[in-house]
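Entry 14. Structure prediction run on the chain below.
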Amino acid sequence: MDNLSSLSTPRAIPQPLSQRTSRQRRRQKAIARGLRMLLGYAVLCLFGIIFLIPFLWSISSSLKTENEIFIFPPVWMPKLPLWSNYPEALDYMHFGLLLRNTLFIAVLSTVGNVLSAAFVAYGFSRFRFKGRSVLFSALLSTMMLPYQVTMIPLFLMFQRLGWLNTYYPLIVPAFFAHPFFVFLLRQFFLTLPRELEDAARVDGCNPLQIWWRIIVPLAYPALATVTVFSFLGSWNEFIGPLIYLTDQKIYTLSLGLSVFKSSYTTQWGYLMAASVTMTLPPLLIFFATQRYFVQGIALTGIKG
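Output returned:
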């Protein structure tokens, strides 16, 4: 009877040693992968905090008195925040006028950079012609020239054109395709399948219509990247306005902030308040286009 009951009771079948070993290895790899990700995020958070400290200190200093700014050891939170520093500083430096001037230059320069770079990049990526590689290499080689080399010739050229003390020297060059933006967009255009162009040609589209109706709508991530770079460059431009602008009524924010610093050298609270206010528009634009910006940076390096 005992023998029959023992035969009817199912027994657990032991797993082979190789299966248990492979399962342990997979578990160990998953744990190691999780630890590497945790370490990576910790390092990124650490560097993010380090880079964020100067901006936080600027915000803190903009709400302090002169004594609290230079006190040692430093005090992060003021005892009584001086919110009046912001309206007083913006009123002293005529922030509304400078903001309007800067936005006018930045928007037109961004439009020029995006359109011209997209047009030139389309030609380098889609058309096959003799000497294309040589011309593209020559275009990229201009990125090696520092601005100090071309500054005096450009000044003399704009002087003969009668463009000094106008916005033309700050806007017109943007419509002649910056080589860095051409490189970014060309890399992205190379990833687009040529079958789309063939289908558009069958439907009767010419090259200009293909560029505007097919290529440009598909290149939103790369165009967003160029837009952010171009806007930030125009917004923070200081050397150009310093050289070409002499009338304070057409100054930009960066130039006006420099004049404000020289005029109110001891008013550090006002200076920090104006600096923080000037930083806000680029931050808002970056966060609004962050998803497309990161996607564009990732996709422009897929194909060489």
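DSSP finds 16 helices and no strands in the chain.
Filed with the rest of this week's runs.
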